[in-house]
Structure formats: C-alpha cells, structure tokens
Amino acid sequence: MPFIKKNPKKVGLAKIAPKPISKPKEESDSSSDGYENSDGEYVEKPKYYRLGGYHPVVIGEDYNGYIIQKKLGFGHFSTVWLVEHKENKVQGALKIVKSAKTYTETALDEIKVMKKINECDPERKENVIHILEDFKHNGPNGQHICMVMELGGSNLLDLIKYYDYKGIPINDCKEIAKQILKALDFIHTKCGIIHTDLKPENVLLSFTIPKNKKEPIPKIIETKLADFGNANWINKRFTDDIQTLEYRSPEVILGLHWGCPVDIWSHGCMIFEMLTGDYLFKPKQGKTFTLEEDHLAQFIELLGYFNKKYLNIAPQTPKYFTRNYELKHIPNNELHLWKTKDVLIEKYKFSPEIAEPIASLIEGMLIYDEDKRFTAKMCLEHPWFK
C-alpha cells in the first residue's frame, strides 16, 4: 500500500545501483550487469566482456591522446574511466560504450544531444555536463563509441548518504534545487531537450563527498546535470519507456502525452528526497494490486483524486481504474489522504513556517495535468527561492 503513510524507507543497494529502464535484446538473459565482489565493491560481471559487450581497459593505455588513470565506474551501457590528455593535461571522464549495435545507436543519439548542449552553451556556463570529444575505438569485442565528458565530482546521492538519509540542510538543498532548475530551464528552452531520467545519481557535485563524516562539506556547492543517455528531443521521441520508477510521472504511467514537465515532476520528488532522505513515492506490488496501481494510489493519497476528464483521455485508465474512477484493487476507503505540508510537519518535524513554502513548491511541480504543472522558470520564481 502507499508509502508515505507506512514505514519510512532507508535507501539500499537498489538505489545505489538501479536496474536500467530498458534493456536491449542482446542482453536480456540477466537482470543486472554487476555483482558485489569479495572486497565489497559493485563491479561488472566478467561475462559481459564479450563480443558486443564491454571493452577491456588497462590503466595507462592511450585512447585518442587520453591516458587512462583509473576506473570511475560502470553502467549497463558502458564503463567510465578517469583520463588525462597527454598534451594539454585536461582531465575528463571517458565513457566506453558496449559495442553491440543497439548501444552504438543509443550512443550516437547521446552524442547529438551533447553536441546540441555545447552549441547552445559555448562558454560552458550552464549547470550541465559537456562533452569534450568523441571517437571510435576498435577492440577485441568490436568497435566502441567513446565519449570524453567534463569531469564531475560526487553525485547527489552521495550527499544524501553523507547525511544518513536524514535530509540535507535546507539552505544547501535550496541551492542545489535552484541550480538543477536552471539546468532544466536551459535544456528545455534553449536546447529542446528533455532529460527523462532526473534522479540524484544523475546530478554531479563540484567536489568529492568526504568518507569521514567528521569532515565538513564545502560551503560552495556547484551542481551539474549529467547522464543524457536517456534524453529525448522535444520534437522527437526515442522511446516512451522513460524515468526511473520512483520519479515517474502520472502521464507516463497512464500513457498520455509527455514532454518537459516529466523532468519537473522528477525534480519535485527529488526535492522532497533531499529534504527528508526518503523517497516521496516508493511503489510496491502487492498480492492483490499491481506496482502501477500502488503508485497511482500513492499519488492520490498525497495529491488528491484524479480529475475525471483527465482519466477519460488517458489510454491506460481502463487498465487501472473502474468505470466509477476508483482503482480496481485499492478501494477509496483504504486510501489515507495526507497533504504534503502535513507530511513535512507531522512526520519530519518541519515547522509550519518552513513546511508551507516547500509544500507549495513541490505541489506545483506535481500537478497531474502537465499543461498546468510549473515550468522550471516558474519554480525559480517561487517564494521559497526568494
């Protein structure tokens, strides 16, 4: 049943290493590309170092003038390495994509998106990661698309973890939220790009989070929106299978048109998570109801019932709702309505004076109708940021 009225969650490994949104047919035989080794590190499975898969990398190797320094991590599509150019000494993050055709096509689309960002921000002033270079590399497992990105620091999830999932200080949260909104306004209005996968892992900070929690966090926080591998153009869609579950918007679940407002919805969820350390929505499948029904029930509990006109035009409404506009397997009398402001005050002990403007902003970012939902610019003009 809906999360916010139940036991609070603390983020686990699923949050740190989420499953990909969609998986190409080449590798549908596995639910995960990684595992925890004997040292407690989450690493990629050796079986994916094969034709069509990852490229084997050795520290000190030269890739188009960039020398491999150390491994930064991996994802479903690629491994990522710290590199330094042997001539100009510029450091970057080298992303080496799996060589299968599906990944190559996705990478080429990502490069087009990144080049559009560079074109719209030649002086690199915006709060987004930029691409420095791209090239192809032939290896034993095929030809790999390579992208050298600006180097970021820790991600926002690392900061949430630093504070033990109890919430980032409000002033820091406000500054981070504002910078993300500026980045969204830039990609939406100047670039014609929808990120579609906004979450803490995809927001990079300008510093490394201390492992020792006695060490203070730097006072100046600069954020950069990263990972445009799932991005879509406003006027061209690559897929409708978008957004990580906890940040997924109702229009995506119900099969309606979606656009830039999906990023605003995700960011509204993320602001709550920054402030509290908890997901705003954490749907789970039950014995009598589906994952999507629980997700919709959680929306209703926090934001109220869906407008009948809205449900009448949603293609997936018959799948989840009765003719009386009730969820098929979660009746209205089992829902517990709880306003955002009250959640912040009663569960997280915010004062009413602090909770009210936060709730006002978040609820504006979580309006069901995408045409009425706040834009990034509208959010930046909200009293909470004044």
UniProtKB/TrEMBL annotation:
Residues 66-385 form the Protein kinase domain. GO terms for molecular function: ATP binding; protein serine kinase activity; protein serine/threonine kinase activity. It holds the Pfam family Pkinase. SUPFAM superfamilies: Protein kinase-like (PK-like). Its EC number is 2.7.11.1. PROSITE patterns: PROTEIN_KINASE_DOM (PS50011), PROTEIN_KINASE_ST (PS00108). It is an enzyme of class 2 (transferase). Keywords: ATP-binding, Kinase, Nucleotide-binding, Serine/threonine-protein kinase, Transferase. One of its GO terms (cellular component) is nucleus. It catalyses: L-seryl-[protein] + ATP = O-phospho-L-seryl-[protein] + ADP + H(+); L-threonyl-[protein] + ATP = O-phospho-L-threonyl-[protein] + ADP + H(+). Residues 1-39 are annotated as: Disordered. One of its GO terms (biological process) is spliceosomal complex assembly. PANTHER family: PROTEIN KINASE DOMAIN-CONTAINING PROTEIN-RELATED. This is non-specific serine/threonine protein kinase. It comes from Entamoeba dispar (strain ATCC PRA-260 / SAW760).
